[in-house]
Amino acid sequence: MTNLSFLLTAGALGLLLPGIYFLIFPRSIARLSRRWMKRGVMLNLLLFVLGIGGMLVAGVNQVMAAEPVAGGSAEISLGLGLALIGIGLPTALATIGAGIAVSSVGSASLAVITEKPELFGRTLIYLGLAEGIAIYGLVVSILLLGKI
Q1: Pair 17, 41: CB distance under 8 Å
Q2: By 3-state DSSP, what share of the chain in percent is helix, strand and coil, each rounded to 5?
Q3: Helical (H) or strand (E) element with 81
Q4: Contact, 73 vs 33, CB < 8 A?
Q5: How many CB atoms lie within 10 A of CB 133?
Q6: Helix (H, G, I), strand (E, B), or coil: what is residue 65?
Q7: Is 33 helix (H, G, I), strand (E, B) or coil?
Q8: For labelling, which of 29, 34, 95, 111 has a CA lying 20 to 30 Å from the CA of 133?
Q9: For the whole prediction, is pTM greater than 0.90?
Q10: Taken in order 93, 97, 98, 100, is the CA torsion positive or negative?
């Protein structure tokens, strides 16, 4: 577990420290080749992803090997756990979709408002429609939660 946390820490620091350095000394970016930068970022990202994946696998192994702490409490079976994850997915995916929609609609509406300020109300309606996607996902999750 300590090796995995080392991988995770090394990957995070490998992504953060060059960013801080290039923020302080922006002219040093011009001396580096694009290939070197791309390989460095990809290596650090790979370390970070391997660390996260290893922590996930090690955490699952530790939980499965642990003895039950609560004696008579209601147990969550594997099927119920997967059902709860499946119930959370509509909210998660709808929220991601709404974020993408709001980003494009919001930037376009700002451009329209600078050209024609009288279209402000109409752009708010479009933003509300884009945000409604997340609410639909939440409603679906609540309805699915009632089925358990």
Answers
A1: no
A2: 85, 0, 15
A3: helix 78-115
A4: no
A5: 18
A6: helix
A7: coil
A8: 111
A9: no
A10: positive
The percent of residues above 90 in pLDDT, for the chain, comes to: 27
Q: Work out the mean pLDDT of the chain and round it to a whole number.
A: 81
- 25's tokens: 């000394």
Please tell me whether residue 31 adopts helix, strand or coil conformation: coil
Which two structure tokens, joined as six digits, stand for 120? Answer: 């402000």
Residue 142 to residue 148: CA distance in whole angstroms: 11
Strand residues in the chain grouped as ranges (E) = none
Which pair of tokens denotes residue 84? 């709860």
Tokens for 111, please give them. 């451009």
The count of residues in the chain is 148
The residue whose two tokens read 């499965």 is 64
Check whether 63 has a pLDDT greater than 70. no
Give ∠ CA 69-74-77 in degrees, rounded to 5. Answer: 90
When pLDDT is cut at 50, 70 and 90, the band that residue 46 belongs to is confident
Distance CA 98, CA 127 (A): 10
